[in-house]
């Protein structure tokens, strides 16, 4: 049987469809459904216009507003927070396959030099006792201090303990006030009647749910989707289940071997051209977080430069890619000021001069106006010459 070859145009269409970016971001809103379809939504503290998790959900349906995520966590317990490749929101339905990640993180964090020396057993007992007796607490409820020479990433001992217990699954995020996290005993947050899966079954679910959401990917990309199993474990899964092998064409015409979801041919047969609407994506959007894959599929080179010294940045501190149809056409730098109610476009670049047209500029202005509504901003200022 000949290997299925997926040309680049089809691969782009499949990718955008799998990540909820092929259709116009309109229609009835199902926030939990969006999170389930994506698998996870990355959390981030930085708020330039709107924080990453809100922006990512808004990009799929622009009826979403920032107040709509917390009730799923605080009241309905339909999502939980934990660590994939980074801190993320995940559907509570995925909790049974996540026990191994709690165990992995307990081991990784416990043996790290950064955490290890701060994990005082008596402090751990005291933190657990206080939360058990007092209910959900934030780091502000504790008063231990950093001692010795202060470094950028140092945290007070109580914060290290809270994070260790959170990584380990002994504590869970109860809710957030603003972006302040409140920790509670996991048994009071997580459903206690959830199924218990063997470690092998968890690995199988992790790999299969990842491949379903990617549509296609290398074994490394499948493993890194959740970052909750190791390379040998992913390899053993592939050898046991033998997923469909395909070849995917890159933007430069080269071909990469990959694995594909079992229904990939059905997905291809029903594929529609992506909407021509211009989209402003967040730097942490799951569709673009693997920069090597982004370049391979779309020929778009993109780097997050917020941790690059200002003098060495090519673009800027927080730069948003612009997606139009099945290609990335440019990038912008924009800032929101919630005190003045203004969203300011400070820089605008296109991938080639021929893409700088009045029609595209009008599309961008319309999308910026819609993005402003997400952040509660009322005025759009266009700063670039």
UniProtKB/TrEMBL annotation:
Pfam family, one: AlkZ-like
Cited InterPro entries: AlkZ-like (IPR009351)
PANTHER family, per the entry: CYTOPLASMIC PROTEIN
Protein name: Winged helix DNA-binding domain-containing protein
Organism: Tritonibacter multivorans
